[in-house]
Amino acid sequence: MAYVAKIGPSILSSDLSQLGKECKRMIECGADYLHLDVMDGHFVPNITFGHPMVECLRNAVGAVPFFDMHMMVSKPEQWIRPMAAAGANQYTFHLEATTNPGNLIKEIRDNQMKVGLAIKPGTTVEELAPWAGQIDMALVMTVEPGFGGQKFMEDMLTKVSWLRTQFPSLDIEVDGGVGPDTIHKCAEAGANMIVSGSAVMGSDDPRSVIALLKDVVMEAIQKRCLDR
Known about the structure:
By secondary structure, this protein is α/β, with parallel strands linked by helices. It has a single domain, classed as Alpha-Beta Barrel (TIM Barrel). The chain is built from nine helices and eight strands. It has helices at about 20-30, 50-60, 80-85, 100-110, 125-130, 155-165, 185-190, 200, 205-225, and strands at about 5-10, 35-40, 65-70, 90-95, 115-120, 135-140, 170-175, 195. An eight-stranded parallel β-sheet has the order 1-8-7-6-5-4-3-2. α7 (about 185-190) runs parallel beside α9 (about 205-225). The N and C termini lie close together (about 10 Å).
């Protein structure tokens, strides 16, 4: 079983006026990677930041932290090269934003980034399945993309369970409403990459929250190994 537990704070939930410091703080608190939400105002209603900000953050935090780019954009092909040049490590695009995922996957790899493929709550997991063998990570959204603070959609975890059964070694990420109250269900379903926004960034003790989330996922992975 190749996958491991990884916790990635969503930096959009941080103090945006102190973004570089907040990224460093999360890494110091035990984060395995940083989840960066890019929104263009078209694919989703909100606008966040683009590759110039990513480049600034890379310069601020150094080469080591893993940048998982969640590209909530209507033209994901447009930003592959700029994000690679800015220091992105994984480029996660939405299946709903393209008619040719294969070309995008190839271009992302050609630009030396890992490939993530995301689906909205309204998209079936079977639509992602044909591409699962070509990607590094599948992202199952547990809220509608574009806004923070939404209620966790527990019924989305059936997608996670199905993916874990069909693709046992795939990294599977969940994003939206994930925190101490919902992590057990995510872990039991088979998610190993956990995006958490306000639960981590808004905590008085983010180190403890990150540790809790990771412990729960690690325990679920170990149990799954024993049950095989």
